[in-house]
Design a protein that fits this description.
Layout (H helix, E strand, L loop, with lengths): L8 H21 L5 H17 L6 E2 L2 E2 L2 H12 L7 H15 L9 H14 L5 H11 L7 H21 L5
Antiparallel strand pairs: 1-2
Amino acid sequence: MDNKNDKLSIFTRSFTALFLASLSYRHNNHSFLSQSQQRQIIEQSIDYIQNEHDFRGLTNDGWAHGIAHIADLLDEVVDFTTFTHNDSILVINAIKNILHNSFLFTADEPGRMVIPVLHLINKNIISDDELNNWITLLNDLKVYNFNAYSNVSLFMIKLQAHLLIAYPGFE
């Protein structure tokens, strides 16, 4: 990830995340990973989402889609027995930072990032106060960053729609 001029390495990172999402899904349905292996996947997933710099979706070389695939992986690692409250805080803060980036997402990446957040809410890993504080920070944008505003807006619309369906009467 250090070589920002390498426009093809995103495919290795992105599809490794997608592979690990499938592996994690399998583990969540038929446990086979050790606690150490779970922690390693969690920590590498958080490291990846915190450090990814290539936000492209569809490219001339195919689907890069790293942010969507890491969202898929994060959705699975939330179910690991070793996933902690601190992990959840790192995840939602990394999602906020990605949405605040000046890159305009065009392939529903904000919608994909809603899924692990919903999972955290459904599992009661983060409190309502923590969620409300995070949403306040998420909506604290610089007025000149229209792309970040668009990314956060799409994320919030999708989050609200999912919450209204899952929790009628949710405020």
